[in-house]
Every structure is written in structure tokens, then in C-alpha cells.
Amino acid sequence: MSSGSAQEVATLRAGEEVDAVWACVRKERQISRAGTPYLTAELRDGTGSIVARAFRDADLLGGRFERGDLVRVRGRVERFREALQIELRQIARTEGGEQDLARFLPSSRRDLDELEGFAEHLAREVYDPGLRALLERLLGDRALREELRRAPCWPPPSGPARAGAHHAYLGGLLEHTVAVATMALELCTVHPRLDRDLLLTAALVHDLGKTEEYTYGAAIERSERGRMLGHVELGLRLLARHAPALLREDRRLQLEHCVLMHHGADGAGGRGGRGGVASPEALALQRLNALDASVKGAFELGLLR
Predict the structure, then answer these.
(1) Residues 51 and 42: beta-carbon distance below 8 Å
(2) Cα end-to-end distance, the chain, whole Å
(3) Three-state secondary structure readout of 216-252
(4) Could you tell me which residues come within 8 angstroms of residue 15 by beta carbon, excluding any fewer than 6 positions away?
(5) Residue 156 has what pLDDT?
(6) What is the pTM of this model?
(7) Can you say whether the dihedral through the CA atoms of 243, 244, 247, 251 is positive or negative?
(8) DSSP symbol at 266
(9) For 47-77, how does the pLDDT look when each residue is reduced to its tens digit (9 = 90+)?
(10) What torsion, rounded to 10 degrees, do the Cα atoms 236, 241, 242, 246 define?
């Protein structure tokens, strides 16, 4: 049996013996048809996730760890209903120490330094003095930039794939932000009546609230602020801390409206003009955001090649 945690979920094969450290993202005590308890856990590393089950000593093993822990796993990979699963012999909480989160959580395959460079380039395409100053202040906030590089757009789904999830991995927020802003810039060449500086700025800041929406450990969870307020409100509050000294009130309202409406009227409580949207820039951002989310989500869920 291999020692430690060198094994990766993506390379497991039926019949393989497992001895590894992974993150537990789901834990359930279930009852079989015979009326006996069994334990189901979903285990994840940076390459994927796999279900593990223990049909013996379920309660004993279940008492040794909780969802969100890093766990040491021993067992054997079996094929069940055309999918791989692990038949557990041992599972228990282990200390993670300073281990890299990216080893246990899915991460962007894109180079984050390159993506960050693209974001800086797009920000330099904004010429409105107030909006440009706002972007410079936001991108000059080292702590905010670190969170922008780390945050996903959604927590990695556990169990059945979550409808609507996209960029559900570390670095996903930066990847999505650059994609939407790039499309915004291109759209302005097709529709020159759009306020280019407003739309590009809105694209760069529309999801910044996600930098405060999550906490990180063996799994990505929503923070209390994320659960209570959501990323749209958190984003508006973040802008409110920076924008008043830099933007005229009318300009600030235009930008806030774009952020507020980027998920449509339903996401903003129906506020705004016709259909909730009161400006062509807000409508454009809403559609571009949905386009990138739906296409990327389809790839991630395996709906497209």
C-alpha cells in the first residue's frame, strides 16, 4: 500500500489500494435496505472527488471526523454502477498543517499571474478619470487582490452537480472577471453608443463581493457575511468604501446599478426600470455575465465537449 498522500483522485483505478490524505466535503449516515447503518463520505483533492462508503463500523468511523476535515483514508477502489467508489476500511481526521489549499481544492488551470496582468491591462483601457482612479485604488489594495486571485465564483459542488455553478474552483473569480471584461470591451466596438468606460469598469467590479463571500479550509464554505448578505450587497458595500471620494454621485449610481442588476431583476429584488434594468450598460453586463457563466458551466458539467 502506498504511504501518505501522493495518490490523486483523478488517477484512481478499480482494484487499487488507497492510503491518502484528502478533504471531506460531504458526510452522511445512511440506512441500508437491511436496516443497518452505513457511512457515505465525499472526498476531494485538487484533481476531483470520489464517494467513499463504509458498511462496517459505520458509527465508529463516522465519529472520527467531520465534514470539512482533512482525513486520512485507507481502503480499496471498487466499481459500482459504472462509477468508482472507495470501500473504506479506515478514515479519521488528520492535521493539515501548512499544506497548500490548491492540493485539496480544484484550482484554475489558467496562469493567475497572466490573468492578473490581463485585468490590469483592461483597467488601463478606462479613461474616465473617476472610474480609472477607482480601479487603481481597488487593484492597489493588496489584500483585495489576493482574495480576487483566490476566490471561486461558486464553492466546488458536492454530490450532484449544482445547476448554475460555474468557475467553481480557486482562481475562478479572476478568470470569470477577465472573461466578462474582455467581452465587454469587444461589445463596445459593435455598439459604440454604449458607455465604454462605465461598462468596462462594471465588468471588472461586478463580482468583487465574492472576495468576502467565502471561507477556506479543507472545503470552501460561505462566510456568515456571504450567507446573510450575498455577493451583490457585499460588492456594493465594497464600492461604497472606495467610490464616494472618487466619483460624482450620478456616476456612482450608474456603476452601482450595473452591479446591482448583473443577475437581472430577480437578483436585485425587482428594482430598476423596465424589467429592472435602467441602462443599456446594465443590460449588456447582465447578458455578458450570463453568457460566460452558462458556457463555462456547460463545459464544467460535461454538457459540451
Answers:
(1) yes
(2) 36
(3) ECCCEEECHHHHHHHHHHHHHHHHHHHCCCCCCHHHH
(4) 76, 77, 78
(5) 74
(6) 0.81
(7) positive
(8) G
(9) 888 999 999 999 999 999 998 888 999 999 9
(10) 100
